[in-house]
Amino acid sequence: MLKKIKETVKEKYAQIVEQNQNCGCSCGSDFTFPDGSKDFSKDYTKLQGYEKEADYNLGCGIPTGFVEIKEGNTVVDLGSGAGNDVFVARRLVGDTGKVIGIDMTQAMIDKANRNNQKLAYKNVEFRLGDIENIPLDDNTADFVISNCVMNLVPDKEKAFSEVYRILNQNGKFSISDIVVSGNLPEKLRQSAELYVGCVAGAIDKKKYINTIKNAGFKTVEIVEEKKYILPDNLVKQYLSPSEYELYKTSNAEILSITVKGGKND
Asked: Can you name the residues that pair with 36 across neighbouring β-strands?
């Protein structure tokens, strides 16, 4: 099952590059929000360092906006895609810092490298790798960022332990992600097909926070939160009529959150 999930994610994100689709979690799934908007992603266009060719609208937050990345810092972006958050972080670290993007999809790595060749950044690097086994040494990073990716990782305990490992002793993280709250039916949680909508991999918000704390982090804080609404036509594909009625009367919610924290403060 875990192998199938990873292959589904790889195929989805390779397709996004091949077909040049500017959509991510919400692509084709018709999610809506209480404010009527249709997209998980945030508007990056006014951020310094923004590169249109690197933006596939794959995120659900702006993780660089909640930590004080400075010139000379080393930043690692997990699930870096075509480089959207990497290039924003590069603007913050300047010429003396370094930004490393990690992604498990070769098509995304190739696209990110093409983008970087145009920008000619000498201190940006993209590596093919798995977040559950990050190809970096211990204590590499001052900051780890990630944008709507951890929920797609089957073994989140291992992933967050890897985040802890690669951060230096004063290191911090800022991660935007999808979580659930309340009794979301297991059929919706576990269906591999829903990974293209970033729902099935989402775990309970409290469990998510506890997973981060159990990795060893001293501080964990939710700094942004937004509620999503699953459309009825999608839910009915996975639930029987009786299960659907229970779901509609439950307190189940799907949320995007941005969480920040550190190893020592």
From this structure: none
Look-up: residue for tokens 């501080």? 219
129-152 burial, b at 16+ Cβ within 10 Å, e below that, comes to bbbbebebeeebbbbbbbbbbbbb
**Regarding the domain delimited by 2-262, which CATH topology (the fold level of the hierarchy) does it fall under?**
Rossmann fold (3.40.50)
Q: Is 102 in contact with 134 (CB distance < 8 Å)?
A: yes
Of the candidates 172, 153, 149, which has an alpha carbon nearest to the alpha carbon of residue 73?
172
8 A C-beta contact, residue 127 and residue 102: yes
| Secondary structure of residue 63 in the 3-state scheme | helix
107 three-state secondary structure: helix
Most distant pair of Cα atoms in the chain: their distance: 59
Sequence ranges of the domains in the chain: 2-262
Q: Is the pLDDT of residue 18 over 70?
A: no
pLDDT in tens, 30-61: 555 555 554 556 789 899 999 999 987 888 89
Q: CA 166, CA 144: separation in Å to the nearest integer?
A: 8
Task: Look at residues 219, 215, 203 and name the one whose alpha carbon lies nearest to residue 257.
Answer: 203
Say which residue the tokens 């594909």 belong to.
237
Contact 181, 252 (CB under 8 A): yes
Structure tokens at 79: 């699930």
Residue 89 CA to residue 47 CA, distance in Å, equals 10
**What values do phi and psi take at 134, rounded to 5?**
-65, 130
